[in-house]
Write a structure and sequence with these properties.
It is a single chain. The protein is mostly helical and about 70 residues long. The chain has one domain. The protein has four helices and two strands. β1, α2 and β2 form a beta-alpha-beta unit. α2 runs parallel beside α4. The longest helix is centred in the middle third of the chain and has 14 residues. It is globular. About 5% of the residues are buried. The mean pLDDT is about 95.
Length: about 70
């Protein structure tokens, strides 16, 4: 699954008339579950998280590394 910028994702959805689900992740397990479901359904997703808890706990760099690893 490719990582893409939000503008490209939403422009494609608008053009082709579909919605993109946004899912809140709190740890690696929820991040992985969302990514696996998206891949299984062949559907794009938006990953959300909380700056005051998840980002504060893991740090931005760790979350980016998780995203890259899970995107394959």
């Amino acid at each position: 699954m490719a990582l893409v910028d939000m503008r490209s994702l939403l422009d494609a959805a608008r053009k082709d008339g579909y919605a993109v689900g946004a899912f809140n992740i709190v740890d690696y397990a929820t991040f992985r579950a969302v990514m696996e479901a998206a891949e299984e359904e062949r559907s794009p997703v938006i990953i959300q998280t909380s700056a005051s808890s998840t980002v504060k706990f893991y740090g931005y760099d760790v979350l980016v590394a998780m995203a890259r690893a899970l995107a394959g």
